[in-house]
């Protein structure tokens, strides 16, 4: 009886977790066919399963029993990774320990423990050096990529330098970090022109919300903008790009959790916004998302990956200090890491 009660309790927790993401999955229908879903023999021969992409095809709506699950964590459980594909009506990203077809409740605890250890205030000679922190994050990226049969260099590490002074940023630049992310145009304009004179090959990403009246400044200063989320901003960016004669790399931010307090376009509005951007002469290369806090992020990362696949977009900006390994395993091409590189603010 105890075992049956445990199973019922787990099922109830899982239902609460998926109540947030499943309406969004229902809105886009079943996953598009992906060429990277191959037989085991083919996967052994092809190290990068994210290779050639197929044009998204229309498919019937996802049924209520179908779920999206996260990458099995071999480091946590010491078990073999599951195979990409479908089983028993479930939409599998890959398997997890214990629960197989659904997100294991203890999987979240493992990532929180790992993130807490990484993000604790840096003390002592081992973790006080920027080069050590950068090397650790890169090693974690490489390990996560290996589990997902990806290459580590398929993921761009963006060091989130918002609120940090130039003297705090310089050690990471000296350690070899070249991609940095800022939330505000004014803050970036105050510190990055000087830093760029010291290291000319810096790539600067705007990862925060952008006001339409700041579009010209953003286009002039940033190499990538991750927060395109509304028609008025599309119009402002199109004018700014034409005036400047250049276009930064552009991502549409998607509100995958349907949260009122968070920026990003709704999943249902994404096709129209992409069409509007194309009509304005803008090239959108990827999608960005921030999953809801305090829940397992894997289903939301899987949702963003599916949306990008469906619309033929090659880039996915997802994952931060507490969950970037999960994001890498689920297809992130850009991760935005602050605390794990700079320490707690």
Can you put this structure into words, describing what you see?
The protein is of the alpha/beta class. It folds into 2 domains: 2-92, no CATH class; 122-342, Alanine racemase (TIM Barrel, Alpha-Beta Barrel). Helix content is 44%, strand content 12%. The protein has helices at residues 2-28, 40-45, 74-77, 105-119, 124-127, 130-147, 166-174, 185-198, 215-221, 231-244, 270-279, 298-310, 324-329, 339-342; strands spanning 85-87, 90-92, 156-160, 179-182, 203-206, 224-228, 249-253, 284-288, 315-317, 334-337. The longest helix is centred in the first third of the chain and has 27 residues, at 2-28. The chain is globular and about 65 Å long.
Write the layout of secondary structure elements.
Blueprint: H1 2-28, H2 40-45, H3 74-77, E1 85-87, E2 90-92, H4 105-119, H5 124-127, H6 130-147, E3 156-160, H7 166-174, E4 179-182, H8 185-198, E5 203-206, H9 215-221, E6 224-228, H10 231-244, E7 249-253, H11 270-279, E8 284-288, H12 298-310, E9 315-317, H13 324-329, E10 334-337, H14 339-342
Parallel strand pairs: 3-4, 3-10, 4-5, 5-6, 6-7, 7-8, 8-9
Antiparallel strand pairs: 1-2
């Amino acid at each position: 009886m105890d075992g049956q009660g445990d199973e019922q309790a787990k099922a109830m927790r899982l239902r609460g977790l998926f109540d947030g993401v499943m309406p969004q999955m229902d809105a886009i229908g079943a996953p598009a066919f992906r060429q990277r879903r191959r037989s085991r023999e083919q996967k052994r021969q092809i190290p990068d399963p994210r290779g050639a992409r197929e044009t998204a095809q229309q498919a019937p709506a996802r049924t209520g029993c179908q779920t999206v699950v996260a990458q099995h964590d071999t480091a946590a459980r010491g078990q073999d990774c599951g195979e990409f594909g479908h089983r028993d009506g479930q939409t599998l990203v890959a398997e997890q320990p214990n629960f197989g077809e659904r997100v294991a409740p203890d999987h979240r605890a493992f990532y929180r423990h790992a993130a807490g250890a990484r993000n604790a205030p840096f003390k002592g000679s081992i973790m006080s050096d920027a080069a050590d922190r950068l090397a650790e994050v890169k090693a974690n990226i490489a390990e996560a990529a290996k589990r997902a049969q990806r290459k580590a260099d398929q993921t761009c590490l963006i060091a989130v330098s918002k609120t940090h002074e130039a003297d705090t940023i310089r050690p990471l630049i000296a350690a070899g970090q070249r991609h940095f992310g800022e939330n505000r145009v004014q803050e970036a304009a105050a510190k990055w022109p000087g830093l760029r004179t010291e290291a000319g090959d810096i790539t600067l990403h705007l990862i925060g919300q952008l006001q339409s009246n700041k579009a010209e400044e953003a286009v002039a200063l940033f190499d990538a903008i991750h927060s395109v989320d509304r028609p008025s901003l599309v119009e402002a960016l199109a004018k700014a790009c034409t005036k400047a004669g250049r276009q930064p790399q552009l991502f549409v931010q998607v509100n995958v959790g349907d949260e009122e307090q968070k920026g990003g376009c709704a999943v249902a509005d994404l096709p129209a916004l992409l069409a509007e951007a194309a009509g304005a002469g803008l090239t959108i290369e990827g999608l960005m998302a921030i999953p809801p806090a305090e829940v397992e992020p894997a289903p939301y990362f899987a949702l963003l990956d599916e949306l990008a696949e469906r619309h033929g977009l090659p880039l996915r900006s997802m994952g931060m200090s507490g969950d970037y390994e999960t994001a890498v395993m689920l297809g992130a091409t850009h991760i935005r890491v602050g605390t794990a590189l700079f320490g707690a603010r």
